[in-house]
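Sample entry copied in:
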Amino acid sequence: MAAMELEWDHQGEILVRRRRVGPFDNAAYVVSCPDTGAAVLIDAANEADVLVRAIGDLKLVAVLETHGHADHWQALGAIEAHFASAWVGAHPDDLSMFPPPPPAHHFSHGEIITFGNCQLRVLHTPGHTPGSVCFLGPGVVFTGDTLFPGGPGATRPPLGDFPTILKSIRRELMGLDPTTLVYPGHGEATTIGAEVAGFEEWEQRGF
């Protein structure tokens, strides 16, 4: 059994299942429409069998990749083979980081992803990688490695850049409702309000 098998019901608007997988303890999320059973998988990180079981009898519409680092797509090939009708998306600035063939759907900032009666909005948040994105839903945001409890994701060169990730977080995330739940690519959930309080400290410490 995967670690921390959790499920949240966001006031009947979306259902979220989290599975913690792989050697880097990645958080992968199955997000589904409670009315239709349509679903998306955010980050096919690892342990494809665990993710297949988490999807279960839901209708997988798409795999949404938050960025191109390998620990976030190790199960992608197996998931594509198992759910042949699901499309795979990533931001074009990270396509070279994926194994061939790269994701065929290329996200644009502000794009709306629809599954059943539910929607997620793509937020381009470069800084961890050039093509990092977050996915904003009703009262929730899936931040990949852009934002964690306690600060931004790593910004190691050549792909990462600290001023860029701060700009992304300030522009796209800090203005969200403080009660918005943050589901990161590793670790536990937090809220926008909890993270706003530390923004100046992150800026001063420089990482």
